[in-house]
Amino acid sequence: MPPAPTPPRVVAVVVAYNRRDLLLEVLDALARQDTALGRIVVIDNASTDDSAAVAAAAGPLVDLVVLERNTGGAGGFAAGLAVALERHAPVWVWMMDDDTIPTASALTELLAAVSGTDAVVAGSRVIWTDGTDHPMNTPREKPFVSGAERKAAADRGLLAVRSSSFVSMLVRADIVRAEGLPLADYFIWNDDFEYSTRLLRGRRGVFVPGSVVVHKTRALASTDIDPGPRFYYEVRNKLWMQRASRSLNPGEKLLYGASTLRRWVRTFIRSADRAVLRDGLSRGLADGLRTRPRHNAVSLAGLGPVTDAVRALEGPHD
Asked: Does residue 247 fall inside a structural domain?
């Protein structure tokens, strides 16, 4: 019997902020994957607990980078991808939050789904602690998907998608080099939507039901359930996407824009503190219309090796 083929080199990127117990679970689960990882890059976003110490004690598989300031999820993943590509020569990069616990076969299933295909992004099935599919990370079939692409995915037990979530997203490294990094100025919210749709414009991505991760949020709820002050980022970042991002074509911008407006209405209806949402809406509209996200070399300036890695991948700011 011929030997099994060597799997491609995968480097995980985990962004951590003040959840040391969950981070410990994540790192343990990653170390126990059925398909071994090449390295794990942990970006500690200036945590005030001992998250960095937990990562530092996790063993030689972990490459810990401690940032001097909190750059949000968007900045953390931009930093992590840049470091992973500069230091560890991955073929694929596996991105996840520090509250995402992958099952032992999660990576194996992702790699099996993309093997021999032209897919450049693959996302996991995300469940909550009770085994229920998590509404925060529910996949949707790619709008306007061709019959051929739908069938090619369905024949492998997959779903053709137009976007994916940073909760568990496998990305081909050469596509990261071609398209650049997530936009750090998004800070939180819509950063994964903008980035994954940018990577997938004109390319193929899949949702992989057999790859399962547990998203240990405090509650089983979607992001549009009373987001509070964070609603500002939802509004500003969606406007930035409409105005400044190349991730969506004009037809998609109309489609997703209409969906966004409907979701905002539902958010206001369900909210117990609409004054906070009105403030977020007002400020988000103002900043989303008057400003644009800065180049990552500016957003992530002053962070030493991280800044250097970002500039090496995307170039300096002109």
From this structure: no
SS3 123: strand
Contact 136, 166 (CB under 8 A): no
CA distance 54 to 20: 7
Residue 265 lies in a domain: no
Total domains present in the chain: 1
∠ Cα 275 277 281 (to 5°):
120
Of 298, 181, 179, 194, residue with least CA distance to 237: 194
Distance of alpha carbon 241 from alpha carbon 153, whole angstroms: 28
From start to end of 17-135, where are the E strands? 39-44, 62-66, 92-97, 100-102, 119-127
CB 79 within 8 A of CB 306: yes
Please write the tens of the pLDDT for every residue from 28-69. 999 999 999 999 999 999 999 999 999 999 999 999 999 999
Per-residue b or e along 151-183, where b marks 16 or more CB atoms closer than 10 Å to that residue's CB: ebbeebebbbbbbbbbbbbbbbbebbeebbbbb
Parallel/antiparallel/unpaired status of strands 10-16 and 39-44: parallel
Rounded-to-integer distance, Cα 221 and Cα 137, Å: 10
SS3 at position 272: coil
Alpha helices in 57-168 (DSSP H): 72-88, 106-114, 147-154
State the pLDDT at residue 221.
65
CATH value at residue 71: 3.90.550.60
Domain enclosing residue 88, as ranges: 10-221+292-314
Cα–Cα distance for residue pair 183/174, rounded to 1 Å: 18
Query: pTM of this prediction?
Result: 0.93
114: tokens are: 């993309």
